[in-house]
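Continuing the batch. This is chain 6 of the set; chains 1 through 5 are on the previous pages. Same settings as before, nothing changed between runs. Recording input and output for traceability.
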Amino acid sequence: MLDIKLIRERPDFVRQRLATRRAGDEALIEKILQVDELRRKTLSEVETLKARRNQVSKEIGALMAQKKAEDAEAKKKETGDLGERIKQLDKEAAGFEATLKEVMLRLPNLPHESVPAGAAAEDNPVIRTHGEKPTFAFKPKAHVELCESLKLVDFERAAKLSGSGFMLYTNWGAKLERALIQFLLDLHTTEHGYTEVSPPLLVGPQCLEGVGQFPKFADQYYAVQEGLDAGTLGKLYLIPTAETPVANIHREEILKENRLPIYYCAYTPCFRGEAGAAGLSTRGMIRVHQFDKVELIKIVKPEDGYAEQEKMLANAERVLQLLGLHYRVVLLCTGDMGFASAKTYDIEVWAPGQGSYLEVSSVSNCEDFQARRMNLRFKSETGENKFPHLLNGSGTALARLFVALIETYQQADGSIAIPEKLQPYLKTERIQG
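Output for chain 6:
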């Protein structure tokens, strides 16, 4: 969440930066300031009354020593009245605190000054492209036809098992998916210095709140129930991304400065209910409820945040470079950014059969926004507790990488050539029917 001190001291600046998102969130600042002022006034009054009660208590002791029992009783009544008033004000302050937290949790991060203003994806500038779009001596097929002809994915039986938006990888399709996951993990842990972790796939709501997915998007994820006990519904959620558990690994901790930076990577399946909201009737692997992803997470000192973001972006790009895939990097505009992000790059890979670019990675610096929500701090060398910057990026996401790869490497005879970097994992140079 945002720093309440920043809102108090520079409300117009916060309003201006929020307004660039074009979602109307700047209207919440006035309510935050009002509730915060009421909370602070109430707490100030409580402290004044407590000081008065302490003073009166001392006076009671003096009066009792002087055997002025009647005066002492009057003072005792005053302390009782003060106690009741303090209790009432404490309750009011707690109410203001809860309201303030509720509104603050719904406030998105401020876009960094380098983020271009814009309303939607059409306003995202292309930063760079890599490679050339592949050319074919034949009309390239879309991934659905390739998957069915080579029996890589059984869409019909997947729908029978789980409904639309799920996949059943089979034979070489399952092997290719596994090979891609292993390739990504090996690359990031050996070349890029990330520590591999394997987190739980179910997390409590506090983790979703920590990374900014709750409360605003609480209707978009899969809540689970333990058996038939309806009272357990919502105590755990299927993760929408490995970012959710991995970024929260050090929640509510104070790290030593010399532990930073921390780099984690993790492979997990990801579960997203919102993918089926509209238009999921289109067959294929582009929008699905469950997909695999290798996620990158960094916890770094604030002064290193943006340099580390550029490094993470390069790490994700390296995947596509080694696989020989054409892609472009775009910088998300203010109106297209994620809730928790201060700055985000998207990597979009070219899928010839689709005739379009597909997003396979978003690399974001959330600055201290998530760290504040999960109360993650580090102790500086001067002894000061500070909030680190948290970064996340897909390194990369499947199944869109799968789609781009098989569409790019399809051959005239219907087979798929395997990029050199994946051949040691698959132990073949070609997938053919």
